Amino acid sequence: MDMFDMSHAPKPNANDGLHSPSSSRQFTPAECSPKAADTVETLSTDPSSERAALVKGMAAVQMPTLVLGVQSDILFPYWQQKEIAECLREAGNKAVTYYEVDAIYGHDTFLIDLVNIGGAVKGHLENSIHA
Predict the structure, then answer these.
(1) Is the separation of the CB atoms in 110 and 117 below 8 Å?
(2) Going along 33-120, which residue ranges are E strands?
(3) Is pLDDT at 130 greater than 70 in this prediction?
(4) CA–CA separation, 70 vs 72, rounded Å?
């Protein structure tokens, strides 16, 4: 996950002074060269540990859950929604429904495609009540 990280992983300390405008750290010209940028450490981690942290972060969600993904949505891509549904299942939620919509409206599909979105929500609510 990127934009809305729901994982249980520790977050970097925003007050570490490295990114603060008031930081007194002085950089040398060599550190600012394009060649030096190739050696900068990244914060990326092993994808399996990121997945495990995401599953742990979602463990508390144990109620019927509907996850909707829209194939043309670039703000919240369908593959991220699918990952959310998979992580919820891995975390023990046995009542997860993933519904993928093939529509041309992108993120606005949730506002425009009343038949598909409304039908998915209606079906989820009806099943949740009877479950």
Answers:
(1) yes
(2) 65-70, 96-101
(3) yes
(4) 6
For the stretch 34-86, pLDDT in tens is 554 454 444 455 778 889 999 999 999 999 999 999 999 999 999 999 999 99
Report d(CA 57, CA 12) in Å as an integer.
Answer: 17
Backbone dihedral region for residue 17 (phi beyond 0: left; psi -120 to 50: alpha; all else: beta): left
Q: Are the C-beta atoms of residues 116 and 103 closer than 8 Å to each other?
A: yes
Q: What single-letter amino acid sits at 63?
A: M
Residue type for 58, please?
M
What would the two tokens of residue 70 be? 């829209």
- Note the pTM of the prediction, 2 decimals: 0.65
Closest CA to 53 of 16, 10, 13, 109: 10
